[in-house]
Design goal:
The complex is a heterodimer of chains A (109) and B (597). Chain A is 44% helix and 0% strand. Chain A is mostly helical and 109 residues long. Chain B is elongated and about 90 Å long. The chains are: A mainly alpha (109), B mainly alpha (597). The interface between A and B is large, with 30 and 41 residues.
Chain lengths: 109, 597
């Protein structure tokens, strides 16, 4: 039987009914702008720290939204807070504020 | 002068005496608590300062700031007179009151209420020049205080008269204290006038006494007026701790601590506490705050932040996050409260050592070519390469050898992290950059971003390396004749970036350059009073709309004299203005590069 190797990697399917995106909702309450993200990737392209490490606000936001908090935070680790992502965001999202809120949340939780 | 009341007591003194006892106890406990909150090191500093010659400077500062209010005079002469007349006048009334007691009734020295109600308790025996002289002084200072109170009352209804567009909203405690303060001095005047026939008086009290005598027998009114006077004094003293007038005693304390070299290290340590209580709620920071261009945002200005902190109400974090950290309110604050620092400290408390790590730092090895001048663009200038391209043109023309430290990506200077409250991570970045700079062997570190400039000057330990901003450097090249520029027919206005002007004290160099490049026009608010461009990294939560509003307000002040072009010296200001400004916007390096011969 040809299985085409589909079972080689574990399923990354997310069940939105059970995923817990409470952190995302909390950040959303503090920075409502993040809901308008169009995932254009300008933030990643301009990132100062992105030159040195895998940092992606765009992807982190997406992962937070589906409740994958640990993976999301790993993508923000090393952020230098320089604020370039906020300046280039075509949607005018205060990305820097969102990152600050995430950092604070991690400190408390 | 001789005593006329047996035992020197009358029941009307009770309200005042109770108030006075209350306030003395309150202040002693408060002062003790603040000192107890200081660390051992800070206590030592305070002690050392108190027993050194520097204490005389503290006395001088207290007189100049708390009594004469020279700082407010510089801002607006009427506002200054209002404060100085009430503060200095009232102080002199108390001071001369004590001298009178000392001279005429020394046996009553130390009785709390006696100097205040002196004229009730004494009667004239024979006229002496001395007594008349003191009575004259007392009447004179009372008149001065009354004139100040008059302006204060008028100011409540029309604040524009003292140069303030907006003043603070009052709380109940403030209102009680304020209205009693208004009443105290007119009542004192009446009380002293009503007894002037017995105790004697001078031009003010005697005159009023005679006028009243013509249509009313004042004997029966003596008691009620003295009661009213004592009651308002009591009301003021009891309301004092719950009102903004706490700044009167606390400011003395603050000046003493500040001159001892103590600074706030947390948002609520002893020093911070005395700063919070020293806020007089005058509201000068409301007009100063760029956020207040949107009137709903006036509630985020420093005065309201300090008020929230003082009453320990929720929401102070929100206030701290909004602040642009432009320092305009600190510059204008008559009490010199460093509210920006307090807000940064507040942010710091949200971040613990358990934070997002910067693991990659140890793997970065920046190799910089050896040369005397090391240029660091920083994150912001990388977004506006036109600035460093122009600067490089200038450097090449002048024959300066330089190397570009962060050509292949910047490790941030650390200031944005510090502003967000994460000093732990900021220190890691600072150390990494410091090593790179020292290893490069450069003698001059050249920067084009004021945000970087401020932090490199203040937080980096770079022995033997001069940190310069490109405005300073270009001006130096021009003065040394290494480059020359043509004077064009264009007119410019210069926008002082917060971190370059107020933050680092560089005002003249960019102006000297622009005067060589063309005609320099004035902005309505410039130098220390320069308006924030709205782009500041200091604010964490201000959104784009609000920022644009601030940018527009700043542009309005800059284009007051209709210049052709707006020039600034900060990549972030440049970026904020560029898209909103209808006229050309340029960095100072661009202007020089364009007009260079």
């Amino acid at each position: 039987m040809n299985r085409f190797g589909y079972r080689l990697s574990p399923s990354s399917q997310i069940d939105l009914d059970v995923s817990d995106n409470s952190l995302f909702r909390e950040i959303l309450a503090g920075e409502p702008g993040i809901s308008t993200c169009i995932a254009c990737g300008s933030c990643v392209a301009s990132c100062s720290a992105g030159v040195f490490d895998k940092i992606s606000f765009r992807k982190a936001l997406h992962l937070l939204e589906v409740g994958m908090d640990t993976e999301a935070v790993a993508l923000l680790e090393g952020c230098m807070m320089c604020g370039k992502c906020t300046l280039v965001c075509p949607r005018g999202i205060n990305t820097r504020h969102a990152i600050v809120l995430i950092k604070r949340k991690l400190n408390k939780g | 002068m001789r005593e006329r009341i047996v035992f020197a007591f009358d029941p009307f003194v009770i309200p005042f005496t109770l108030g006075m006892v209350f306030i003395i106890l309150y202040l002693s406990v408060g002062g003790f608590k603040i000192i107890a909150k200081l660390s051992a090191e800070e206590k030592m500093k305070l002690l050392k300062h108190t027993f050194s010659f520097a204490i005389f400077k503290t006395f001088r500062d207290i007189i100049v700031d708390c009594l004469l209010h020279l700082k407010i005079f510089k801002r607006n002469i009427r506002l200054g007179y209002m404060h100085a007349s009430i503060a200095f006048g009232w102080f002199m009334l108390i001071f001369i009151g004590h001298i009178e007691v000392m001279l005429y009734t020394p046996q009553r020295l130390g009785v709390l209420y006696y100097p205040v109600f002196f004229r009730y308790f004494v009667m004239k025996t024979h006229e002496t020049l001395r007594g008349d002289f003191f009575f004259f002084l007392m009447d004179l200072f009372l008149l001065i205080v009354l004139s100040g109170v008059g302006i204060a009352i008028y100011k409540r209804f029309r604040s524009a008269i003292v140069g303030m567009k907006r003043t603070t909203k009052l709380r109940t405690g403030d209102k009680i204290a304020l209205y009693s303060l208004w009443l105290i001095f007119p009542l004192r005047l009446f009380a002293e006038s009503f007894t002037a026939g017995i105790s004697g008086g001078s031009f003010l009290t005697i005159t009023i006494n005679r006028v009243f005598n013509t249509f009313a027998t004042n004997e029966s009114l003596i008691q009620p007026v003295w009661w009213a006077y004592s009651l308002t004094l009591g009301a003021f003293l009891f309301a004092l701790p719950f009102s903004r007038y706490m700044h009167i005693p606390t400011e003395i304390f603050l000046i003493w601590m500040r001159n001892s070299g103590i600074r706030a290290t947390s948002s609520r340590d002893g020093y911070a506490e005395s700063e919070i209580y020293s806020c007089s709620s005058c509201g000068i920071c409301i007009d100063a705050c760029p956020m207040a261009v949107k009137s709903e945002n006036s509630k985020f200005t420093s005065v309201y932040y300090l008020r929230l902190m003082r009453r320990r109400l929720p929401g102070s974090m929100n206030h701290a996050d909004k602040c642009l950290m432009c320092g305009r309110c600190v510059e204008m604050c008559p009490v010199e409260i460093d509210s920006c620092k307090l807000k940064v400290l507040k942010r710091e408390e949200e971040i613990s050592e358990k934070r997002l790590r910067m693991a990659y730092l140890s793997e970065i090895h920046t190799n910089v070519n050896k040369s005397d001048v090391l240029y660091y663009a920083g994150c912001m200038t990388h977004l506006t390469p036109v600035i460093y391209n122009s600067l490089f043109k200038i450097l090449q023309k002048s024959g300066t050898q330089f190397s570009f430290m962060d050509k292949d990506g910047s490790i941030c200077c650390g200031r944005p992290l510090m502003l967000s409250g994460d000093t732990y991570s900021a220190k890691e970045l600072i150390e990494k950059n410091r090593q790179t700079i020292i290893n490069s062997g450069a003698k001059t570190l050249l920067l084009s971003c004021p945000i970087c400039y401020k932090v490199f000057r203040e937080e980096y330990d770079l022995p033997g390396i001069e940190v310069v901003h490109h405005t300073e450097y270009i001006n130096r090249l021009l003065n040394e004749g290494k480059i020359a520029i043509n004077k064009s027919g264009k007119s410019f206005v210069f926008h002082d970036p917060c971190d370059l002007g107020r933050g680092s004290g560089i005002f003249e160099q960019p102006r000297e350059i622009l005067m060589k490049a063309g005609e320099l026009r004035f902005a309505s608010e410039e130098r220390g009073k320069s308006h924030c461009c709205g782009g500041s990294l200091g604010s964490l939560s201000l959104d784009k709309e609000e920022r644009n509003g601030i940018t527009k307000a700043a542009l309005a002040t800059l284009f007051e004299n209709n210049p052709d072009e707006l020039v600034t010296a900060c990549p972030l200001c440049y970026k904020s203005f560029k898209n909103i400004n209808g006229k050309p916007t340029a960095d100072i390096a661009q202007i020089v590069a364009e007009q260079m011969v």
